[in-house]
Amino acid sequence: MQQHINIIGWLYIAFGALGVLVGGFVFLAAGIAGAASGEAGAAVTAGGVGFFVALILAVMSLPSIIGGWGLLKRKPWSRMLVIVLGAISLLSIPIGTILGAYTLWALTKPEAQNLLRG
Question: Which of 34, 64, 96, 99 to pair with 16, CA 20 to 30 A apart?
Fold first, then answer.
C-alpha cells in the first residue's frame, strides 16, 4: 500500500506542476500575441488576461501539489484532501477518470487509512 500512496502522491504533484506550467505558457503566449499586434493597448490587455488565466490555473493546481506532498510525507490531512481531488478529477475524461478511480480505490482501503492516520 505504501507504493500506491507514493505513486498517487507523485502523480498529483506532477499534474499540479503541469497545471502551473500550462498557466505560465498561457501567460507567455498572451503576452507575445499582444506584443505582436503592435498596439500598446492590446499588449496590455492580452498580458493582463494572460496573467489572470495563469493565476487561476496556478491557484487551481496548488491543492494537487500540496496534497501530493502531504501523501509523500504521510500527513494525516492529505488523505482526505486527495480523496476530494480524486472525486473531482473523475469528471475529467479520460486521464482524470483513471487518476480519480485509482485514488479512490487506494486511499479508501483500511491499510491506507492506517498508514496515514498519524
Answer: 34
- Residue range 76-98, pLDDT digits in tens: 999 999 999 999 999 999 999 99
Grid cell listed for 75: 500527513
Q: Which three cell numbers stand for residue 60?
A: 487551481
Cell output for 26: 498561457
Distance CA 53, CA 28 (A): 11
Q: Are 58 and 20 in contact (CB under 8 A)?
A: yes
Euclidean distance between CA atoms 97 and 69, whole angstroms: 21
CB atoms within 10 A of CB 81: 18
Are 74 and 92 contacting, i.e. CB atoms less than 8 angstroms apart? no
Write down the residue that cell numbers 507514493 correspond to.
Answer: 6
Model pTM? 0.88
> In angstroms, rounded to a whole number, what is the distance separating the alpha carbons of residues 10 and 76?
17
